[in-house]
Each structure stands twice: as C-alpha cells, then as structure tokens.
Amino acid sequence: MYPSAFLAGLGAGAGLIIAIGAQNAFVLRQGLQRHFVGAVVLVCVLADISLILLGVAGMGLAVQQHPGLLQWLRYAGAAFLAAYGALALRRAWQGESGLQPAGNGSGSRGRVVLACLGFTLLNPHVYLDTVVLLGSLSTRYAGEGRWAFAGGASTASLLWFAALGYGARLLLPVFRSPAAWRVFDVAVAAFMLTLAALLLLPRAA
C-alpha cells in the first residue's frame, strides 16, 4: 500500500509541478545566472511541501470555501507578474542580462527570496494544485497511505526544482551570447504578461 501510494504521489506531483509556469521560469533564470540557486530551490521546495501537507491534512475544503481569498490572489498575482514582465522587457531592451557570478546578479539574497515567494504564493493555481487537488487525491489512501502519497508528491517537488535550478548550467554555453539573453527575456516577458492577463479574465460560469 505505502509504496504504491508514494509512487502515485510522485507521479501526480510531477505532473502538476513540471508544467511550465512563472515560478519555473524564475528558477531557470536564477539557475542560468548561478545567482542564489540554493536559496531559490529551498524556498520553492519548502513552500510546495508545506502546501501539500496542508492539503493532505484536510485544508483543501477550507480553500474551496473561501473564494474571496483566491480572488484576491488572482489580482495580486496578476499585478506581480505584469511588473516582472515589464522588468524583463526592460532588461531585453537595455541588454542588462548576462551571466553573473553568484552574489553579483540582480538583487540581494533577500530580494531574490521575496521574488521567489511572490511567484510561489501569489499564484492562486498553486493552492488549487497542491492543497485542493493533491489533497483530494490523497483521500484515496487510508491512514498512513495518505502521508506516503504526500511524501511522493513532496519528493517530486524536490527532484524537479533541484534539477531545474542546478541543471540550468547545462545551457550556459548557449547563454554566453547577449543575444540569447535578449531572446530569453523577451520570451519571459511575453509569458509573464500572458499569465497576468489570463488571471484577470473572468472565469467561465
């Protein structure tokens, strides 16, 4: 029972976490710049694990019963993504991006961690995916099986963000070109601004 629950959680967590999102784009950029990668990976993993555990503990229903909170997160998240998208456009226009040694990139450790928390916690979908959906899936398993499921989902988060943050260095030869950074920042800006617009669109009835 426990191994099957763990593997189910691993697969479900991977399916939700690996989907391309603003948080993943941010982690990839930090990994490419080798800028506080450990702190970023740690924040993402700890936030995911905390939300997964809350979902398995039964907080998913509470989230569903407070749509006003998710509505507030939609607007805050849209504003955050739009601001980050505008910054990415400015970097592309001015050619400010590049490979920076750790500690000399864009912002202090505190600012990087705050930005990472913004990408993680101001996204209403993260609560629907981790707290509600994974929490609901865990109810298929009784007793300790639910926590084995949570362990699998948490392991997926750890493996993914570590691979994304530290594996980004494999792309470093490509990003030694300033032109590649411009293209990357334009793509990030378009992605962030599109996500911000989607968050503001009214939900279908």
Automatic annotation (TrEMBL):
<keyword id="KW-1133">Transmembrane helix</keyword>
<feature type="transmembrane region" description="Helical">
    <location>
        <begin position="39"/>
        <end position="63"/>
    </location>
</feature>
<feature type="transmembrane region" description="Helical">
    <location>
        <begin position="179"/>
        <end position="201"/>
    </location>
</feature>
<dbReference type="InterPro" id="IPR001123">
    <property type="entry name" value="LeuE-type"/>
</dbReference>
<protein>
    <submittedName>
        <fullName>Amino acid transporter</fullName>
    </submittedName>
</protein>
<keyword id="KW-0812">Transmembrane</keyword>
<keyword id="KW-0472">Membrane</keyword>
<feature type="transmembrane region" description="Helical">
    <location>
        <begin position="69"/>
        <end position="89"/>
    </location>
</feature>
<dbReference type="Pfam" id="PF01810">
    <property type="entry name" value="LysE"/>
</dbReference>
<feature type="transmembrane region" description="Helical">
    <location>
        <begin position="6"/>
        <end position="27"/>
    </location>
</feature>
<dbReference type="GO" id="GO:0015171">
    <property type="term" value="F:amino acid transmembrane transporter activity"/>
</dbReference>
<dbReference type="GO" id="GO:0005886">
    <property type="term" value="C:plasma membrane"/>
</dbReference>
<feature type="transmembrane region" description="Helical">
    <location>
        <begin position="147"/>
        <end position="167"/>
    </location>
</feature>
<keyword id="KW-1003">Cell membrane</keyword>
